[in-house]
Protein 1
Amino acid sequence: MSRTVYVNGEYLPEEEAKVSIFDRGFLMSDAVYEVTSVLGGKLIDFAGHAARLARSLGELDMASPCSDEELLAIHRELVTRNGITDGMIYLQVTRGNPGDRDFAFPPASVKPTLVLFTQSKPGMADSPMAKVGMKVISIEDIRWGRRDIKTVQLLYPSMGKMMAKKAGADDAWLVEDGYVTEGTSNNAYIVKGNKVITRDLSDDILHGITRAAVLRFAREAQMEVEERAFTIDEAKAADEAFITSASTFVMPVVEMDGTAIGTGKPGPVAARLREIYLDEMRKAAI
Ligand code: PMP
């Protein structure tokens, strides 16, 4: 069945939705995005995603296409029209269509392009992967230096996922100057003793919305949180490892470059944080 998607003020069947070939999102990757999960028909941490979108737009001097209230209404309308119980809402804002190709940013009269669509994933919170854990490989982080901005420049993350697949793994962790930055599409964590360790916030990583919530819950549960860079060797010697993202929540990592982490099975800290995260976020969903 065809989805109903949103393009610049209109709800349309997906086959009828169109964006210009001159759109800067298409020609220049001049665009930012957000992915918000839906559980039980409700949005998970919409406020967090709306705030990060505003920040990404601000950092790139890109106009905001509409207010947060309007964005929320569009998200909800798409959930309803597409009958989404569990899944994701993908949102993208581009610098619009100047009618030609030019490196210079277009004048303010060129309006941003706003596109949203749904991805239905029934039962996504019961992913079998959460029970067995993920295998990851390490690869060099050769992305640009503003990873804190959620741009659609996803070619290297895509290549990283393909490298992982080729190596028989599920994903890749990116390494720069000997230290893990993050996963291809998630934030990376290790657990040593009672300590949850994850890279500190800077331009080097995306400031995960799930990361912020999970660290808050970890502290509330009296876990010790250390925000600092760590190495792949530390990850291999850790008791546990896991990732977080809006669509995977908290997902255990059980193998790094072919070496089992801890027992080689999902650990108790990741399991507990996943449970708390899902419980609390379901309660707060709107
Ligand atoms: N880092 C990167 C590079 C990502 O692409 C993502 C997910 N988009 C994340 C971290 C996790 O962010 P969030 O928890 O907001 O989904």
Protein 2
Amino acid sequence: MPIINSSKTDPNKILPIQYPWAREHYKAGVANNWVPEEISMQRDVEQWKSPTALSETERRLILWNLGFFSTAESLTANNIVLAVYHHITNPEARQYLLRQAFEEAIHTDTFIYCCDTLGLDPDEIYNMYNTIPSIHAKDSFVVDLTRVVFDPHFSTEGTANAQKFVRDLVGFYVIMEGIFFYAGFAMMLALKRQNKMVGIGEQFEFIMRDESLHLAFGCDLINTIRAEDPGIWTADFQAELVALIRRAVELEKAYAYDACPQGLLGINADQFSQYVEYIADRRLDRIGLPKQYGTRNPLPWMSQATDLAKEKNFFETRVTEYQVGAALSWD
Ligand code: MN
Ligand code: FE
């Protein structure tokens, strides 16, 4: 039975499993369990309140990333629950979507925790997706791209509609979680490497670990729909997806320069921008589209930290490196 458009799928009958990858991502997600309160914010609060611990550049970068992520996590959660879940009736895929929705709630909670502990103005942070043009541009790009699937009358029946659904999946899994999150991850982890805002940095590491799984599930879902219904994967549709991803890369670069115009100690803004190209090529490759940039990874420590090792293992569907509970271990 295909993963979309099967009237024969019984959403309550999970065994026997038809798509083992969905089950494996679920188990990996559970093994990665964490909550933000496990991470101390004591030093972050001291640094944030100190007049000298952080430069203006660093403060701007932190605010921009809290501003972007605080609302991006809810946008993602809403798409899973209100759009994707409705159209994916396969029970093991739904089990994963429920887990992912919970993880998005954890991520939303992380930004509440950050705002509360640092004493930030919630009206300012949670309005940055309206007031900061580079953030607004990213969010509205994804929302516009995926609007059609939120229509209560939308169905995935037929080639054009299946393409619309895949466009939604590319919009949230590949572009939002796979590209729009990554300049921010790189910036916050770069800061952590300099012993600045290490509590938030560690929370971003946990979020990035979760997001690499969300991305892996999303790519498996896209690739399954494509394999089951190859007629949707026309040359025109592929070209359209590539163009969307290229546009997303430009928006993410603009965001990176806006959040961190002068770069950080030892990293210039161009390197964040090159990192976005490098990441985009990996995403394209993963859903069977041609790489566009050929950019080398300018921040190899990012791969060591999370992305490469974990994505590779997800694709090999090995879960050997996960640990139960809060311990973070990537090596
Ligand atoms: Mn998330
Ligand atoms: Fe996510």
